[in-house]
Each structure stands twice: as structure tokens, then as C-alpha cells.
Amino acid sequence: MSMNYFPRLLRTLKNNELAGNFRQKGNAMFKVRKNREAVELYTRSIALAEDKSECLALAYANRSAVLFEKGFYEECLMNNYPENLKPKLLTRQEKAKILKPLQTSQNYFEPIPKFPEKNKNTFIDCAADSVEIKYSEDLGRHIVANRNIEIGEILAIEKPFCHILIKQHLNHCHQCMKLSYNLIPCKNCTQALYCSKKCRYNANFYHTYECQILTTMKSMKMDKLKLLPLKIALSVKDQYELIKNGCSTPDKDLYRSDRYQEIHNLVANTDSRSVSDLFDRSVTAAVVFHLIKKYTSFFDKPEDEVTFKELVLLHLQTAACNFHEISELAENKDQIFELDEIGAGAYSFLSMFNHSCSPNVVRHCYGPIIVLRALHSIKKGEQCYDNYGYHYALMTKSDRRAKLKKQYFFDCICEVCKNDWPLYQNLPEIKTDIVISDLDIVKLQNGEVNAANKFLVENLLKVTELEKLKPNKNLAELQEVIKQCFALLGNIRRTL
Known about the structure:
single chain; 41% helix; alpha+beta
């Protein structure tokens, strides 16, 4: 007796009745001035409504009313009004056009920094000339400073080869991840929403295929480390011949973030993985392949099926050790801005930074682009260290080393682990003139960008004074405040 253990296809189809229910819930929220909840419910209605239906137009119209009231005049402009609402909506549109110049700008992030032409790296397209890639048997590929680097200096500005949105789907674009309160839907599924018709069109090359199976994969609790490998395998179909021939990169060639070869050659740690680990990843790859083969038209020829399976399995292994989170500052329940992970990306250059439990670099996101800055002064010849999520101030040495060994397959021998630095609460406090005022803390917690810029100008270089006596509580506190300042220059989700 044959038994089929593969998952059945699940799809959340367009449904005007369900869309109407969400629109009514949005109306209820709007009446009690819960604007954020109302906009999200209307957007849910837009995602569910059938294309070109009156139900879709009504959801657009209701969302437009909230956006107009909150001063989002550009975002509230829309077309395809239902006939019975045209007079009312056209009046709103005329008012919005008049008021549009008065709209308060709410940038998702500050302007993305750029390297002066003279400071660009000759061999790494996303990096400054202050760093270089080195290799050794013990450390593998790693990043070293080729001159002294000051705290706050930018080391890299990297755009991911591929990225995905994993949460906040009702206010971020599925394609570019931009914060948007006037998203438009995929015409065929309920899972993807876009900030513009351009982004919806640009997503076609991969979403045409994932569109059919996203609901099924999410119902199986497939996370970012499974969804991103699928998107990579779909995105590089035009390079399958190159991949079959080895996918090597010339040693003296420019190291590029926009090229697949760099992603393909990231370490997978296959030989270090247990049989059960590899079995689990192989089953996942088989399920993903089954869904693509049975429910989409992705494969043109049999040999592409083999390449696809191999790529999914490869990146299910590289993902856990190399891919990075994409985050933004957002208000928590206490109305304090803190980092919230919303997506994940494959960054080939950032993946080469080794770990330290007290890192000397820090990452912040501008959309899906990551800007990497020095968090500590770095001397020429020293290694540049990122942190893989296990920091000495928050976790004991034994816990850190156990988790790093399990996920990344190495025994941490960083300065912190060698000297067994204490947790934050047990760090010594030193006498210093450097003071972080309560007012500064409140302003930064409230998301004030001007306060962040002012604090950086006044305090950034003071870190070097505290570095001489590390570890100490003063340095740990100042570094955390500086990290919050840098975060405020990047993605911020400001609600309605």
C-alpha cells in the first residue's frame, strides 16, 4: 500500500465575503480612533478581496479615509472608486492634492551613507578601503583592518543578494520591504502586498512560483531559514548552467554582493552536521521540491530539477551560519523604540566576519541594506568582529560557547571567553566625566533622530577613553546608547 506523506496544497483564496468582514472590523476600529488597527484591517480586506470587485474598491476607499485624516495626503490618493462613492471620494482627492505640500515627511530611514570615491575598496564592491579579506586554516576567510579605524567609521554598505519579509506583511512591501500604509495586493494570492505597481511587477520573476505555495509553507511553520533558500533557488534560474559548471569566482576578481557565486560559496558546515540534522534539512528540501514541481510551472527541463534540489539543500545549510536579520526600530507596549526583526537577507561580505562575544562592529538596516560601523577603535592588522547573537554582558561563557558550538560549529576563543569577562551586572564601574543623562535616554527611547545625531557628535570619540580600562560597566552602557543612536538613523516603524 502506497502512502503519500507530502503536504496537501493549502491556499487562502480571494474571498469577498471574508474581505467584507475585515472591512467591517476596520470600520469599528476607525470609529473609536484606533487608526493603526483600522488601516491594517482594511489592508487585510484589500489582500482578500477579488480583483476589480466593488469589495476591493470599498476597502481602498475606507483606508483612504483614515490616511487622509492622519495627514497622509499622498498615500490616500486612489483610483477605481465604486460608482456610489465617487462624488465623496473625488472631493477627498481634491482636498488631498491641495494639502499634499503640507504633508509632514516621515522617512522610513535617514539618507543611506555613501563612501567618497577615494575611500572605496578596490577589491570589495560594498566595503571601504579600510578593510580586506584574509584567509587562514584556523580562521577561514575573515576581515582585517588594513589601517587604524575609529569608532563610528563605516566599514561596509551592503545590499543583500536576496531577502525576504517574514513579518509585518500588512505595512511593508513584499518586494522592497519599504514601510507603506497604502499597499496593493498580488492579484492571485493573499500573502503578498506591494508598495507600488512597479514592485509588484519586479517581483514576478520569483513570486509567480511562490505565490501558489506560500500559504502551505507558512502553515508548516517554515521560517526564514527555509523560505530564503527557496527564494534564492527561484531567483537564480537563469544561472543554472553556470552553477552546474562549478560556480567559481576568480581569486583576483572584485568581490561582489550582487553576484550569486559569492553566496554559493559560503560555508555550509556539511561535514560538521549530524546525520539527524542533514536528514531534517533533506526532508525540507524534498517537500519544497515537491510543492514547486507539482503546483507550479517552474521547471523547463529535468536537469533543472536536480539543480534546484541541490541549491535548496545547500542553502538550508548555509542559512543558519551566514544569513542576517533585517530589523527596524518599533514602539513596544511601553512606547519605547526597540529593534524588531522583520526579515532576513543573504549578505555575502557580512557573512565573512568572525564572531566575538564583545564585537567591534555593529550592523543597522536602511530598508534591506545593512550599514556596518565600528563600535570600537580597531588597530591596523586587527580582526573585525561581528556578534552572532550571544553577547558576554547578557549570557554566561558556558551558555555562549555551547550555543555557538551547536549552531556555528566552533569553540569560541575570543578575548572575552579567554579572560571570562563577567556579566553586565558584575562589571566594575569606573570614575569618569562621561555622563549619559536620563534626558538623553528618554529622547532616544522616544525615537528622536535629532537627539541621536547630537549625542553621537558629543560622545562618540569618548569611547576610546573607556576602552583602555575594559571591561567596565561604563563602556558597556555607552556602547548600547551609541547602538541605539545608529539604529535611529536606520529603519523606524512610526505608526499612524
